[in-house]
Amino acid sequence: MESDKDPLPAGWGKDVSPWKDVAQSDWSDWQWQLRNLVRTPERLGQLLDLPPEEVAVVKSLQREFRWGITPYYFSLIDRSDPLDPIRRLIVPSSNEDPNEGLDDPLSEKDDQVAPGLTHRYPDRVLFVVTSFCTSYCRFCIRKRNWKHSDAAGSRAELDLALDYIRAHEEVRDVLVSGGDPLTLPLEQLDYILGELKKIEHVEFVRIGSREPVMLPMRITDDLLRVLDRHGPIWLNTHFNHPRELTPEAAKATERLARLGIPLGNQTVLLRGINDDVDTLKALFQGLLRMRVRPYYMYQADPVVGAFHLRTSVWKGLEIMEALRGHTTGLAVPTYVVDAPGGGGKIPMMPNYFVSASPGRLVLRNFEGAMFSYPDGGTPAASLDLPAHSVADLAAGRGRRLVPEGNKHFARRTETSEPHVIRANGKR
């Protein structure tokens, strides 16, 4: 067990952290990690050298917002940097205003049809089976469950939700979420997945879990055996920053992938954490190396206490524009806004559709060049005709229009050719 008198050396990583003397067998044991959660303001203050007034704020916030951090995840924080992205993701702070934001920004309770069960989309349901996580994200959309859980926690509540699914044959896809379902006792998880598998019209189950990020040692042989019994299962995890792509996390995703479980990732766009192109490109490309497909990038929801982490939607669109075409499409997730009031996920993307005329579209590519595209049986425009404007492209006079000074396009195109026309009309 850790001691409150442990010195805190400069730097991080397990080998130089307060847990540097912990045996590797303990460090790799997920139950040891849970027994040693950082969960008191005093311990947090010691580990991060917080001033007394900030410790007092954390004590006050504890009445409103649950928190706790595994030693493994805590060891990713750079304590020398007060704006460290991992710290901002997980450590409670005075920036969290309990009077600002919504308890249920997605109106999940409005569409709740049984304990823990939300039926919003026609053919799928959200099944919240726990309110517990091993570490608590500061932007969590279900903070309401930290105080008054509406998860299906008991066997009776689980059975009510399962009865609803059995009675509704249109439900073919069940998303098991929380909290974190992979924190459940294995017997309970086995029961849930086993009962869902018995329902003929349920074609597959998805699990939403951040354990590969927060506690990758939770992906044990026993857990994998339970998952293997009840496929097909898809798993969406929740990496938000490249620093989370550790060897331990890679081992966890590798074990899941080798079991045949397709892995996706849902990232939340967060101010001061990952709201720049280089960070997200490194994250998404790194995920692919770990066999995880970037699936969604969410606009941060207006949940209570998280307004300091929200960006503008325009920032998200700017990032998407800088990703598309500049890295493999496999590394580009769908950027979505989950509309308040139960509107569901709405995809947001840069506008590549410029104009249209009968039989012809004008499209813009990732470089800003515009192209005349023949729709249906319309013949292609001649490359020999000069296009001076979008109107020319829409009328089929010329095939493309290139922004002046587009170095990337010039690099891969002979600009002396007669069919490459500058935006100002000059060859």
Q: What's the quick description here?
A:
With 427 residues, the protein is α/β, with parallel strands linked by helices.
Word description of this protein:
With 427 residues, the protein is of the alpha/beta class. The chain folds into three domains: 23-87, no CATH class; 109-348, TIM Barrel, CATH 3.20.20; 353-411, no CATH class. It contains 16 helices and 14 strands. It has helices at 24-27, 30-35, 41-48, 52-61, 71-74, 85-90, 144-147, 155-167, 186-198, 211-214, 221-229, 247-258, 277-289, 313-323, 390-394, 407-411; strands at 112-114, 117-118, 124-128, 173-177, 204-208, 233-237, 263-269, 293-299, 334-339, 344-348, 353-357, 360-364, 370-374, 400-401. The protein has a ten-stranded mixed sheet with strand order 1-2-3-4-5-6-7-8-9-10. It has a four-stranded antiparallel sheet with strand order 11-12-13-14. Helix 3 (41-48) packs antiparallel against helix 4 (52-61) and helix 9 (186-198) runs parallel beside helix 11. Mean pLDDT is 89; it is low at 1-12 and 415-427.
